Amino acid sequence: MNMRVFFKSLSLLLGFFPLQMKADEKEVNAAGWGTASHSSFFGNWYPQNAQDGRPGTCTHTQTQSTPWWKLDLLKVYSVNRVVITNRPDCCSERINGAEIRVGNDSSNFSSNPLCAVVSSIPAGGSSSYPCNRMEGRYVTVVIPGNDRILTLCEVEVYVVYPGNLAAGRSVTQSSTTNSWIAEQAIDFNPGFTYPQSACSSTLSQTNPWWRLDLRQIYRVNRVVVTNRLDCCPERINGAEIRIGNSLENNGNNNPICAVISSIPAGVSSAYACNDMEGRYVNLIIPGDSRFLTVCEVEVYGEGPCLKQTFVKLKLKSSWSLSEAAARVPLLTQLESALAGRGISNVTLRWSQLPKQEVMRKEAAPENVALKGRAVQSSLYGARWGSGNAIDGIRYAPGEATSCAMTLQRVDSWWRLDLLEYHYINRVTITNRADCCPERLTGVEIRIGDSLENNGNNNPRCAVVSWAVPAGGTVSFSCVGMGGRYVNMFLPKINTFLTLCEVEVYGTVYREKKIFLRMGLASSVDTASVNNTFLNQLQSALGLSLAPDVRLSWTRLPYHSVTHKPKKPTRCTNGH
User: Fold this and answer.
1) Are residues 278 and 152 in the same domain?
2) What are the C-alpha distances in Å from 370 to residues 81, 388, 503?
3) Which has the closest alpha carbon to 487: 463, 508, 456?
4) Does any domain span residue 337?
5) What confidence tens digit (pLDDT) does each residue in 8-34 have?
6) Which of the residues 78, 143, 316, 458 has an alpha carbon 20 to 30 A from that of 534?
């Protein structure tokens, strides 16, 4: 086996990288983010030519003592290595002896720490020099000595971002201004020189937001946000950093990590999130006519977090889950449903095999309105009778001739008589489709047994408090209510009442007869006051939470005289 190939394969297997890069670190060429200058100009060999990403354009000084080229990264970075490309056409020896220095002194750069010394680079060749995470804002290439020329065709400065969870993730935002796409906020480029190609920005809008999807749940300990340098630093003021697992309201309802009061132009500010757990990291600015401009977002934390949760499910299914062929597709469908709600990193398995229980299928709720009778307070015309609202036709094309309608009156009403007492589950109303949908707004649904005020004083189930669209159908839960009459009432409004269908779902009250034989010890003649006695007994039952009990005599009580026993004689003195 070729030993060179073997060691290469082994190094990849063990996870080693050049310059001992860790798996969670990202190395990026930051040379293009800064500004370049040099000690002297020679023609059009500008200092920017060494940072433009094109080896065919070079920088060139005049012949001088100690010529230099300097890159200002505009902020402090951990410089991992520097790559220099030499001139291809001639004079390759000019680079010999050049020093690469990294530090924070912009004027006396010879005092900055030395990264490496260039012994030589072949013509047109590129050589890499490790700087081992030297901290600094300025990277300088200088040749000590007299009568020297410095020519550089490309300088690449690789900085490291250890543990930035945002790297390589997917992002989105509420809107986009021209080329200021959401992805530019996680490209590591702070946008100090060309923000339009390195920062993200929304349009001016209400509550603009930007969202990062980490793809899995992490414990986030801090978020770093870099503000725009060239202008408008105040745009970031008031931005909220939110972290969580929900996509409700585009993730903007997740818990708040921090609120950004302000960030100076071009500055990176860190916000502690104290190990908040979440998959999504959002920035949102509440308010109207706001821009959200972000030049860089870094997220640091630990993870991914794997949590084991046990859920007890009760499933109504015609499948037999005793067979694995049925259980596996069920878990697959549940995982797919969770993924559709933005939870894609969940693995489901059975901790206990499901037990099957045979259950009777409940009958579908019945529209009991179809068996009732309807009346209304007035009649707009013969074709608009009250019975049209319970004919089973929600909507007929053309003019609403299958609807009930009153005249334009104050306190218009429509009443359904169910003929018997019913327990009401829900009431559904369908609005007119051809015109005038606003007439349904304000309708009160009242349910009860009373015909006082034509039934409109019965307890209220619901009010149609919003505009129901033309032809729309709305349902109201009335669980716990009961009665014989269901009213639609428009109080204190001078308008037409139009109903195209009213559906009432519930069950009829069925009386159960129970025969009781009672023996009563009483001094009252129950045969003469039997009705009073029944009323008192029924009232007592009502106080004991049995108000729907009705008592009647199946046989009139008869009277029998029972003699009261005498008290036994108490003996004294032993007699």
Assistant:
1) no
2) 83, 11, 8
3) 456
4) no
5) 322 222 222 334 444 456 788 988 888
6) 458
